[in-house]
Amino acid sequence: MRSNLLPVLSLLLGTAFLLAGNGLHGLLLPMRGSAEGFSPTSLGLLGTAWATGFVLGCIFSQRLVRRIGHVRAFSAFSAMIAIIALLTGLLVDPVSWILLRVVTGFSLAAAFMIIESWLNERATNETRGLIFSLYMTVTYVAIVAGQMSLAFGDVTQTTFFMIAGILYCLALLPTAISTASSPAPLQEVKLDLGMIYRNSPVSFVGILLIGVANGAFGTLAPVFGADVGLSTFTIATMMSVTIFSGAVMQVPAGRISDRMDRRFVLAALAAIAGLSGLAITIIKPDSIGILFGLVSLYGAMSYTLYSITVAHANDFAASDKFVTVSGGLLLLYGIGTIIGPLLAGLVMATEPHLLFAVTAVAHLALATYALVRTRMRAAIPADERENFTSTPSARAATPESINLDPRATPEN
User: Fold this and answer.
1) pTM of the model
2) What is the mean pLDDT of the chain?
3) CB-based contact 329:205 (threshold 8 Å)
4) CB crowding 217-246: b at 16 or more within 10 Å, else e
5) Handedness of CA 93, 97, 98, 100 (dihedral sign)
6) CB 119 within 8 A of CB 131
7) Helices 305-316 and 201-227: crossing angle, nearest 10°?
């Protein structure tokens, strides 16, 4: 056990630096862009561009990795991400940023897949669950740490762009000195939309709508915060609170979904997330306490939906289809995150609170559809459902992280 975990810790450290840099850079760009007077549409396109690159990276980066090898590919992609982080500090221009974000998304997807393939190679049946849990913990903690670092400086200066570049470079060191052997080639990603829909219409439609809502919020909530006069510290805290609330709520909500039709749980969570978004849109709270209460409720509900949707889909899937179904849903989620920031950017041009109108429409549509589907298809009996398992943040998940999930082992 110890000999298997020691090399994994260095890989997890590299993951932490990569995710911290991503959390910092992803929050820095919309906040700096807002300070520079970029339009909400331009800032929304930053999220659309990143998500587009990330989805393309999940699909096409495997061939490049196979051609040049894992170590050199990871070094090249990490260097590219670091260079772009520095370039965005030098080229403060919306068009340049949008184009560069596509490359960042592609490179990050490839880098995450390489690290996750290394972790898969080191995982055994005895250690897979522990490694997967550690990976999830590192994911959430590193993203929050990267975001919260913005609370201690001035986003209008170049300092944070340099820090993001340093973090991306630091991600190279643990993997360079790791004793982990080169893993097997990355698996090709196949997206069978027909099979995924036939398996679970609720999961198919739901994961798209979840992507729309999360993509819109994740990209433009910092812009909303800046437009309503929140300080940098308050915005960073708000973003971290939503992620933390979702992480805390995953297991309780998942355990409830093990005991009843998961579609009812999805509908309830989505409805509460939608109503909290509507409340922010209509009330336009001036009190930080009320705003944080509603945002925390929103995060607890909305950031739990992804894991339960995946669990629902796999209740109906054959045991050997876990990777295919989960991987397809992940790419569908990515497509949703391409759409969400663009829609939210367009409506926020008139009123910043309309960001939450976009998320509310997506969530309430999911709640409605899930309830309709309960009348069209019987639920899987509770004793035949797989036990709920939390998933890493979908912001950093790739098809390789799905292979790391204990449910992907042959025994399951």
Assistant:
1) 0.89
2) 87
3) no
4) bbbbbbbbbbbeebebebbbbbbbbbbbbb
5) positive
6) yes
7) 170
Q: List pLDDT tens digits, range 356-381.
A: 999 999 999 999 999 999 999 988 88
- pLDDT tens string 290-323: 999 999 999 999 999 998 998 888 888 876 777 7
Say what the pLDDT of residue 189 is. Answer: 65
Written as six digits, the tokens of 213 are 């809502």
Sequence-distant (≥ 6) Cβ neighbours of residue 289 within 8 angstroms = none
What does the alpha-carbon distance between residue 183 and residue 356 come to, in Å, rounded to a whole number? 43
CA distances from 187 to 190, 400, 410 (A): 9, 8, 16
Q: Are 226 and 34 in contact (CB under 8 A)?
A: yes
pLDDT surpassing 50 at residue 135: yes
Contacts of 338 (CB under 8 A, 6+ apart): 48, 51, 52, 55, 211, 215
Tokens 């995982």 belong to residue: 123
Residue 149 parent element (H or E): none
d(CA 31, CA 44): 12
DSSP 225-281: HHHTT--HHHHHHHHHHHHHHHHHHHHHHHHHHHHS-HHHHHHHHHHHHHHHHHHHH
Burial string for 55-85 (b: 16+ CB within 10 Å, else e) reads bbbbbebbeebeeeebeebbbbbbebbbbbb
User: pLDDT tens across 346-359, in order?
Assistant: 999 899 999 999 99
Nearest to 217 by CA among 302, 156, 160, 149: 302
pLDDT at 412: 43
Q: In this structure, are residues 398 and 115 in contact, taking their beta carbons and an 8 Å threshold? A: no
- The two tokens of residue 188 are 């090709």
Interhelix angle 322-347/201-227, nearest 10 degrees: 40
